[in-house]
Each structure stands twice: as structure tokens, then as C-alpha cells.
Amino acid sequence: MLSLDLHPIFRNNRDIDVAMRQFLVRAARSGAPVAEIIPGKGSGQLQSRVLSFLDQKHIKKLYARREPDPNNSGRVLVYFQ
Description:
Layout: E1 2-5, H1 13-30, E2 34-38, H2 45-54, H3 57-60, E3 65-68, E4 76-79
Parallel strand pairs: 1-2
Antiparallel strand pairs: 2-4, 3-4
């Protein structure tokens, strides 16, 4: 499973957006059925940011669905078609 850990760049909003965009394009092209983005548990602000990013109209075109991992609140799963 492809994985993007946001811990090293969590303080820089521009780096987060660039990293997530590049990761999603790479994951979609790879043919992997699912990928994970790890914002961590923390206060939940970074996870909210990740979900908001994924809900943008032009980003939604890259994946089939997304959901917070029911078994790990610090991880978001992104499913591709």
C-alpha cells in the first residue's frame, strides 16, 4: 500500500498541499487499489485539513472514495477505481 506521512511537513501548508497532490497523482497512476495518508492523531486539525483537501472538486477526480480508517483515527484511506 502506498503511504504518505505528513508528520515531517505538518507546519508548512504549501508543502502539505504539494505533497498530497503529487502523492495522489502518483498513487492513481500506479494502479494501487488503496493508499493511505497519515496526518496523525493529534488535535485533529491536520486530519481535517487532509479531508478538506480531498473534498476539493478537482482533487475528487483522482480517486473513487476516501474515509478515515475506522481502526486508526490517525490515518485516511483513499480508494481508487
